[in-house]
Amino acid sequence: MTRAVRKIVHVDMDAFYASVEQRDAPELRGQPVVVAKRGARSVVTAASYEARVFGVHSAMPALRAERLCPQAVFVDPDFARYRAASQQIREIFHRYTELVEPLSLDEAYLDVTRPRIPSPSATETARAIRDAIRAETGLTASAGIAPNKFLAKIASDWRKPDGQFVLPPHRVEAFLTALDIGRIPGVGPKMKARLTAMDVHTVGDLRALGAPELRERFGRWGQRLHELGRGVDERPVQPRRPSVQVSSEDTLREDLPLDALTPHIERLAAKAWAQQEKKRPRVARTVVLKLKTADFRILTRSYTPPTPPASADEVAAIAGALRGRVDQAVASRYRLVGVGLSGFVDGRCTAVQPSLL
After folding, report:
1. Minimal CB count within 10 Å: which of 47, 217, 268, 337?
2. CA dist., res. 285 & res. 291, Å (int)
């Protein structure tokens, strides 16, 4: 029996935070806007397309952004306004389908196989959604339309900003063949370097490798690469995904040694615990410590105790102990610290198996 073809739309807002700032302050329109606090400790949250021309991008140190684009207009982030705009956009999504899977404030997957509002095609549905977003929020969005989530996400980036790209089933193989391997979600610089060393530069090159070889080299991820190289992605759109992680992190005012992080860990553990309390009866099993070194390397350590942590103090104690698993020189300094909770389970369950991560 032939499987019914899904119609998936990936909607991605264009330079969302910076666009909200430009919408709300007309004098910023056409200007290179950088959403970030100025200063040596700050990083870029978002950059307008005018700023991106100069090489500015999110997660970049603010000082570097200022050097690349001296005329940039820096604006402090205002997440309350961004969340309000995101909620308005999600309400628009739900007019067209109940199958909406938000990925962040500015992007989501929509399954429009059976839309709530009659439409001749998924292409027209995506266009109607983008038109509604523009009319009601003053913001623009790009969209990718494809048979699955993997392809829709790639397609949404194809005609940015303020565009959409359709990838029907019969064009998938030809489209993927010449696609740079780095365009596959999850293939970062290190993985791309490993694949390049195997003379794999395009998805077509990847497709030429057999699944056994990919599994031998990369394990489960190798099997996933094999599937993606053929455009296969069976993941459904999940409207109500359970929490994967809650966390709180801060960039410190000055770089600190490992043994000076205790008060920051305690404070951030309390914040992460407060977020978890809102998820009851689901509770987290795993405590995660995140650190960023003075030279911007990110380190994470995690531990899953035999029973879920029962208080913020216990979370802080575990996160503090995880510092002992940070194998760095004693003289190392850290610019960011974070505490997270993950591995959520139903707190009403009586049996939880212990695990080390």
Report:
1. 217
2. 20
Edge-to-edge, what's the strand order for the sheet holding 73-75? Answer: 46-47, 33-35, 73-75
Start-end of H helices in 99-148? 122-137
Q: Look at the domain 16-77 and name its fold.
A: MutS, DNA mismatch repair protein, domain I (3.40.1170)
Coil, helix or strand for 35? strand
- Annotated active-site residue in 107, 213, 277, 314: 107
Residue 213 appears among annotated catalytic residues? no
Q: Point out the annotated binding site for Mg(2+).
A: 12, 106
Residue 33 β-bridge partners:
73
**331: DSSP letter:** T
Query: Are 181 and 206 within 8 A, CB to CB?
Result: yes
Which pLDDT score, from 0 to 100, does residue 352 have? 42
Entry pTM = 0.75
- Residues at the binding site are 12, 106
Does residue 356 carry a pLDDT above 50?
no
For 269-305, the pLDDT digits (tens) are: 999 999 888 888 888 999 999 999 988 888 999 999 9
